[in-house]
């Protein structure tokens, strides 16, 4: 009988692992039908959420000024400030790593499905679809992990450490980190298996299930990130042939319930999306596959640089999602605050591949290949649904077109793709897109913030690799090695 992986053990320590281990053999013995395995896949909230502090806190999309912090220090946890200031020790020695634990828990569930899928009874067509789902879940989770804890993809980095590849539920399986190349090869092998799915397009009733179109959407991202622009364009075109996933015209979004405050008097006006719970946002029409960046603190702090990229009078994204004086929701009366909020009172932002992202993947790949008109056309297809009155992006040179497309990408995908983009920009062959992220803040340590000592922090290339939790290293008995800083 299979036992729990080390990663799931760590994730479950706070709930009593001895009790869970005692019950696990009975749970697995009770898996007898493909319907039971399908129910695991249809537990959408288990797979859809990514508590990703690097994408939320470690990029130039985020800014916590000294003035804001001084006005309300209690609004910011020391743990979160470790990511904000690019700490190594503070992240490595945190009490837990929700992203690492969450993705390996998804991988464990996928492995559990794959190990039982041929032994259970049930309809063969359902069996093959569930098998494809499990391969895709595992491959995508490894893509998330390798784009945090390992070096960015490049020819020079292929033999550097990737992440541990858990291919089974056996606790005795090696925890040694595979190479970056081995990790990417394993991801692609899972995607090839997932492509055997017979469902062509997104099922709007269950957008967390894999389809050929959702795989093409993912591959448009995968190939863009590995520098294979021809394949990125080809896969984007395959995905955009969808008749199910559709761009939402943001001019049709409805206002939500305002929030009123006194002392001082203030009114915060939200879109209706702000009140959407999972019962609604899991069915966001733009999704090829449902994944969401999750932030329990609910306070995404947009930087001045990010906000200045928008046409603040006509860009419906800025007008709808950037809430002036939004700190009032967090009991902060300091007037110099803005809060970014999308779904469920600011907890969730779409991070799975959407029609919007695929258009931008295509636009960037075309721009890098020198197709100015094609690149701008793809980006402007998106802008038609985001700007009122609509104005098109224009450019007369390849560098200008690329700059325009990358700015549009940042406007569309804040707090979700910027971390990934900064990493890949650092290793591609175009220095014009390199990003420097600096913080003018106070001295931050594991124990707190010294407001008497200002400090400037800069994100360097080594810290583009998120430190692996020391708890993971310890429990692996040295099999897992830390990144070098």
TrEMBL record:
Does this entry carry the keyword Membrane? yes
GO terms under cellular component: cell outer membrane
Record-given protein name: SusD family protein
**InterPro entries membership:** SusD-like_N (IPR033985), SusD_RagB_dom (IPR012944), TPR-like_helical_dom_sf (IPR011990)
Q: What is its main location?
A: membrane
Q: Where is the RagB/SusD domain?
A: 355-484
Residue ranges of the SusD-like N-terminal domain?
Answer: 19-224
What are the leading ranks of the lineage? Answer: Bacteria, Pseudomonadati, Bacteroidota, Chitinophagia, Chitinophagales
């Amino acid at each position: 009988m299979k036992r729990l992986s080390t990663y799931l053990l760590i994730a479950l320590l706070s709930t009593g692992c001895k009790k869970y281990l005692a019950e696990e053999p009975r749970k697995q013995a009770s898996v007898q039908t493909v319907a039971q395995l399908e129910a695991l896949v249809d537990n959408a909230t288990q797979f859809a959420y990514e508590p990703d502090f690097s994408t939320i806190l470690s990029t130039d999309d985020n800014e916590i000024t000294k003035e804001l912090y001084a006005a309300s220090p209690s609004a910011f946890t020391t743990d979160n400030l470790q990511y904000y200031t690019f700490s190594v020790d503070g992240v490595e020695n945190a009490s837990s790593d929700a992203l690492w634990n969450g993705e390996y828990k998804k991988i464990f569930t996928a492995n559990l499905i794959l190990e039982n899928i041929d032994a259970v009874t049930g309809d063969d067509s359902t069996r093959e679809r569930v098998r494809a789902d499990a391969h895709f879940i595992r491959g995508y989770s490894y893509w998330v992990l390798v784009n945090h804890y390992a070096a960015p993809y490049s020819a020079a980095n292929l033999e550097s450490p990737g992440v541990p590849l858990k291919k089974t539920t056996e606790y005795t399986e090696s925890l040694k980190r595979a190479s970056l190349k081995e990790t990417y090869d394993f991801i692609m092998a899972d995607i090839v298996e997932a492509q055997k799915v017979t469902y062509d397009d997104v099922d709007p009733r269950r957008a967390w299930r894999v389809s050929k179109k959702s795989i093409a959407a993912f591959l448009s991202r995968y190939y863009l990130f590995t520098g294979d622009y021809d394949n990125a364009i080809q896969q984007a075109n395959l995905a955009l042939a969808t008749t199910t996933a559709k761009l939402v015209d943001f001019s049709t979004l409805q206002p939500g319930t305002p929030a009123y405050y006194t002392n001082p008097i203030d009114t915060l006006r939200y879109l209706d999306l702000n009140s959407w719970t999972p019962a609604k946002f899991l069915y966001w029409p733009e999704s090829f596959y449902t994944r969401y960046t999750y932030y329990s603190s609910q306070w995404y702090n947009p930087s001045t640089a990010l906000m200045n990229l928008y046409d603040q009078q006509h860009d419906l994204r800025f007008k709808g999602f950037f809430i002036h004086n939004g700190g009032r929701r967090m009991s902060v009366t300091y007037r110099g605050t803005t809060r970014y909020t999308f779904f469920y009172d600011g907890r969730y932002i779409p991070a799975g591949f959407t029609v919007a992202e695929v258009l931008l993947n295509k636009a960037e790949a075309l721009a890098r290949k020198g197709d100015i008109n094609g690149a701008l056309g793809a980006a402007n297809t998106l802008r038609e649904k985001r700007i009122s009155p609509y104005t098109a992006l224009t450019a007369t040179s390849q560098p200008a077109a690329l700059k325009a497309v990358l700015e549009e990408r940042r406007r569309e995908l804040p707090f979700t793709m910027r971390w990934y983009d900064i990493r890949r920009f650092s290793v591609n062959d175009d220095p014009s897109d390199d990003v420097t992220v600096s913080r003018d803040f106070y001295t931050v340590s594991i124990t707190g913030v010294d407001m008497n000592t200002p400090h400037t922090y800069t994100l360097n290339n080594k810290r583009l690799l998120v430190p692996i939790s020391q708890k993971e290293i310890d429990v692996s008995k040295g099999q897992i090695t830390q990144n070098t800083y």
